[in-house]
Amino acid sequence: MLQIYNTLTRQKEYFRPLHEGHVGMYVCGPTVYGDAHLGHARPAITFDILFRYLSFLGYKVRYVRNITDVGHLEHDADEGEDKIAKKARLEQLEPMEVVQYYTNRYHHDMEALNVLPPSIEPHASGHIIEQIAFVQKILDAGYAYVANGSVYMDVEKYAKDYPYGKLSGRNLNDIVTETRELDGQEEKKHSYDFALWKKASPEHIMHWPSPWSEGFPGWHMECSTMGTKYLGEQFDIHGGGMDLMFPHHEAEIAQSCAALGHETVRYWMHNNMITIAGKKMGKSYNNFITLEQFFKGEHPLLTKPFSPMTIRFFILMAHYRSTVDFSSEALEAAEKGFARLQEAYTRLLAIQPAAAAPNEEIHQLREACAEAMDDDLNTPVVLQHLFDSAKLINTIADGKKLINEADLSELKDIWECYGIHVLGLRLSETEGMNSVREKAYKGAVNLLLDIRQAAKANKDWATSDKIRNELQNLGFKIKDGKESYEWSL
């Protein structure tokens, strides 16, 4: 049975959905004011794996991943200029032009990484009415106050009734010590009170009418509102990067308890960070590498371009709760490892069954992969099991061992289930092409190699060597058999 690490209780728990057979899952999506980078790829891939595995187990999953396109301010989301509005002003665009442009690019990157689209992808700007209503509930309950047209959470009053800081493990005294005093926050009762609604300054270009002022919602409000709108007042899983635990997710818990009288999320899950030289990768540190730069190799820290599947494989090589330190050398190692899996899968598909005794190793493989995934999505162990079975595949493909039809069918199904469907790896070099292109691509390569076979039979070594060398220069790996050949990229 699936066990997941619940950040709230800080232990692994058996996953039991609120409604039998159905799972509600909410994940914090991107703020779309720039290109996606490797730090964005990790949560997208992590929760794509969870989405895939829950679906694989037979659950009907409603997966909600939001788009933040308003209210994400500088300085802890209370002061400063909205990042999208700032981008729009600098580039003389409408804010929603910026949103659409980077949302399209984000979707393109996610498709390249083979991240499945969510069931629902709501935008913060499309739920202003609902956010205003949610703020009003918190005011009616007495846990917020209006100051100069803005609405703030009264954290001290809330903390008398609910354990503020329970997700991040902080107490209010710690939060008081750590909270910075910022300019322009005199209207707050306390520096740690956070904005539920902000009155817009005259130069602010993204604003809406509300009972309190012409303004915009605080950053934390969108997820509380859209999570409960699409998944109900209680739902199963809320996920995101570890950097969102405080203040974002802590604030979400407070907002939901204040408005509804109870928590909404049963299991909190957080992936760890991508680092460069031990420092978190992110736009705020100006040390990020965009996904497009990875795909094109256009960054000083990159030795070459890296394919989307190499990036996905690199992230899956580490457990989602562990830190991953980036280097171009680590990506090159991941590239070689993924190529070994691709080659093994290609050889597996070409194996012909024969009369042979049952192979116990194959029958244990499915159980081992399931056990690893049930252990808090332990993708590195699943990969190791696939690598171990790749040794068996190569032994059989080299004619040193036989495999019967039932075992061969089982082995293919395990690789398809766990390698392709659960881990989301494109193990076929041509996967992702449409069927017409794939057929033409494979046919052209096979035609060249058939011509080479004929040249070899006629002892035309010059033609044979030329075809082999040119294909190898293009990145193909060719393995000659006695009367046949195998090829891969």
Q: Can you offer a commentary on this structure?
A:
The chain has 3 domains: 17-271, Rossmann fold; 291-422, Orthogonal Bundle (Isoleucyl-tRNA Synthetase, Domain 1); 435-488. It has 489 residues and is an alpha/beta fold. Helices cover 46% and strands 13% of the residues. The protein has helices at residues 38-56, 83-91, 95-112, 128-141, 155-161, 172-178, 221-231, 245-260, 291-296, 308-316, 328-350, 360-374, 379-397, 405-422, 435-457, 461-473, and strands at 3-6, 11-14, 22-27, 60-65, 144-147, 150-153, 195-199, 215-217, 235-241, 265-271, 274-276, 279-280, 324-326, 477-480, 485-488. Helix 10 packs across helix 11 (328-350). It is elongated, with a radius of gyration of 26 Å. Mean pLDDT is 91; it is low at 432-436. A hairpin with a 4-residue loop joins strand 14 and strand 15 (485-488). The chain contains 16 helices and 15 strands.
